[in-house]
Amino acid sequence: MSSPSRLAPHLSEEALRLKYRQCKNSADRTRWQALWLLAQGLVPKSQREVGELLDRSHTWVGRLVRRYNAQGPEGVPTQKRAGSSSGGTPAALDAQGIAALDHALEHESPPGGGLWSGVKVTLWIGERTGVQPHRVTGWHYLCTLGYSEQVPRPSHPQAASKEVQVAFQKKF
């Protein structure tokens, strides 16, 4: 069993309780609750015990404690990357880029020829922006623009021209 965590005296136990009770964001609320539980002096709680109470791992609690001790109350809320509203990486294309992609899907052939696919859209985005996004990004943009994973059905050999039929028959 891990030993009880030592919290830096940034906030009192009562202040941590108030932060927990007043927090509207559920993820941040859980963080404040973990810190409040650790700060209570009734029963020395270990990181493992607090993690079990909150359905989190003891390593999650340990990272939270280290961040709180190092950064104070500013280190508790959700850490988002700069330039991102959702907390992840910034979007690969802005509104103009999406419009250019839509135009390319309608009027241009994909890199390497053939049909557009998620991987080919990702290559197109990489050529346009100079940054190669994850390969799934192209698929997400295809879905955003209303495309699906349908491909043309293969044509029947008898529907082909006489030359193609003769060439096909010579194979067998």
Which spans have pLDDT < 50 for at least 5 consecutive residues? 81-85
Please, what is the average pLDDT? 84
Shape: elongated
How many helices in DSSP terms?
8
Distance between the termini: 73 Å
Number of strands: 0
What does the largest sheet look like? none
Using the CA coordinates, give the radius of gyration: 28 Å
Give the class from helix and strand content and strand pairing: mainly alpha
Percent of sequence in beta strands: under 5%
Helix proportion: 40-55%
In N-to-C order, the SSE pattern is HHHHHHHH
What do these coordinates show?
- The chain is an all-alpha fold and 172 residues long.
- Among the domains are: 13-75, no CATH class; 95-144, no CATH class.
- Helices cover 52% and strands 0% of the residues.
- The chain is built from eight helices and no strands.
- Helix 6 (118-129) crosses helix 7.
- The model is unreliable at 81-85 (pLDDT under 50).
